[in-house]
Amino acid sequence: MLIRNVILSHFEQVAKEQDRQLEPLRDNLPLLESGLDSLCLAIVVARLEDKLGVEPFSAAAAEDLPFPTTIGEFVGFYQVAVHA
Amino acid sequence: MLSLGRSQNLSGCTLRTAKGDVPLGLLRTHTCLDVAASSLDGASVMVWTSSPVEAAMALVELDGIARRLVLCPRGIGPDLLNYIVETAEADAVISDLSLPEEAGTASWIRCHRELQPAAVPARTRATEWVLLTSGTTGLPKLVVHTLATLTEAIRVEAASSTVWSTFYDIRRFGGLQIFLRAILTGAPLVLADSDEHVGDFLARAAACCVTHISGTPSHWRMALMNPGAKLISPRYVRLSGEIADQAILNHLRAAYPEAQILHAFASTEAGVAFEVADGLAGFPEHYVSSLQGVQMKMQDGSLQLRSSRLALRYLNRDAAPLRSSDGFVDTGDLVELRDGRHFFAGRRDGVINIGGLKVHPEEVEAVINRHPGVFASLVRTRRNPITGAVVTADVALRSGQKCGPELERELIGFCRSSLAGHKVPAVIQFVPQLAISETGKVIRHG
């Protein structure tokens, strides 16, 4: 499955579990307007670490690189990390 | 006697909310309640509102009048009302919600944002302020403070251009500190309403020219992931409630190069202990012996504190004493000394901190173990870049029970039905067995 699809399916699954209404996940949608709160995003990141074997936030933080702010940036963040 | 209603700077403090401004000084001559405040003279009063704004108004109005004010933060559902009413011996519940079935024997008093002129009785009592914190059994612990213990760390300075804001719920310790700072210094406070998105809140904070803003490291990580974070330009950024790691301190420095960035160590029981302003994680070794008004010691690697800012006691009947015989509070936070600096290294009792909210692993395990397919479970923490940590569970199943994604989803739904969202495991792993000690308990470490 494409990394994008893996990520978006996790957004949908977590939204369902946490009774959250998810906005249509277009690339320029700000992450925090997706309908997921910080806890939901934390769950998505934990599960993606198991599924994809990467957790790109810690490395970005160590290098003072900015965190993603939109859905498109979030997907790109993981695509770069998986292919690194 | 200090009371909020008699604070000389109260009239300078306006709550700036998404639904308009609330000048708190009006509460000297007006009421937000639908009963006379004098009827609550000497009463134990629980404040259980959906919005922090109504709670703030009720607290200002009744401090010095009520004998006890119990602050219920967001997330305290009606199922806990009875327990809190009984434990706090509450005579009345103040709420912006309709009377639920679970209200028990306390009288139900509505509060409103629209103020009515009223005669307000003299504010002469040293009201007990009771804060709620998470307990092992799933029932909250009720922690007693006074306005004196809560405000002892606050320095009142002339702050004509200060505008406060916080990501916290002001009914929790970290947020209450900011609420009280705004009142005592007479500064406006920009408050998020309960249903306001982070992006909208940041845009509003920017429009209000916020200069001082506080939150947990998790609040800040989320804020920095929002384009709205670029709109504000605070002079003072404060973190507390969780371990501030170097990464978040560096991120904030990069985002707000002009700001003073400060992380504070505080807890509901220990009050505000100290602040660290050098931009580095942990705290300098010399703090242990050089803090004014706060004594600090390490016992079994855990930080112990004594000061006039400590809470007085728990109200729960079955609770252990809040302070040891020599007057120290054991924070349960483990610290390690490296190169002249103390660093926080997690909790001695295994309590997990999710974005500033406590999770006791035993409480989550008890729920998982109630599932008929589960033999035993072990709840642990996993580091997380968004909330600092998340809860994970290793689950051993009964023989014949098949594992798989469906059961994982079922167990998560099972936990959701009886636990707050932050306590539900983010990840469940099925394991063949869990290590059991000679005493028959699941081994937590090693």
Labels describing this entry:
heterodimer, A: about 80 residues, mainly alpha, Non-ribosomal Peptide Synthetase Peptidyl Carrier Protein, Chain A, 4 helices, B: about 450 residues, alpha/beta, Rossmann fold, GMP Synthetase, Chain A, domain 3, 2 domains, 8-stranded mixed sheet, 10 helices
Overall 3D shape of chain B: globular
Largest interface by Cβ-Cβ < 8 Å: A-B, 25 and 35 residues
Strand content of chain A: under 5%
Total strands of chain A: 0
SS element count, helices of chain A: 4
What would you give as the CATH superfamily of chain A?
Answer: ACP-like
Q: Low-confidence runs of chain A (pLDDT<50, min 5 residues)?
A: none
Give the termini separation of chain A. Answer: 18 Å
What would CATH call the architecture of chain A? Orthogonal Bundle
CATH topology of chain A: Non-ribosomal Peptide Synthetase Peptidyl Carrier Protein, Chain A
Pattern of helices and strands of chain A: HHHH
The global form of chain A is: globular
Task: Say what oligomer this is.
Answer: heterodimer
Low-confidence stretches of chain B: none
Describe the structure.
The complex is a heterodimer of chains A (84) and B (446). Chain A is mainly α. Chain A is 60% helix and 0% strand. Chain A contains 4 helices and no strands. Chain A starts with a helix and ends with a helix. Chain B contains 10 helices and 26 strands. Chain B is an alpha/beta fold and 446 residues long. Chain B has 2 domains: 326 residues, ANL, N-terminal domain (Rossmann fold); 79 residues, GMP Synthetase, Chain A, domain 3 (2-Layer Sandwich). Chain B is globular, with a radius of gyration of 22 Å. The chains are: A mainly alpha (84), B alpha/beta (446). At the A-B interface, α2 and α3 of A face α6, α7, β24 and α10 of B.
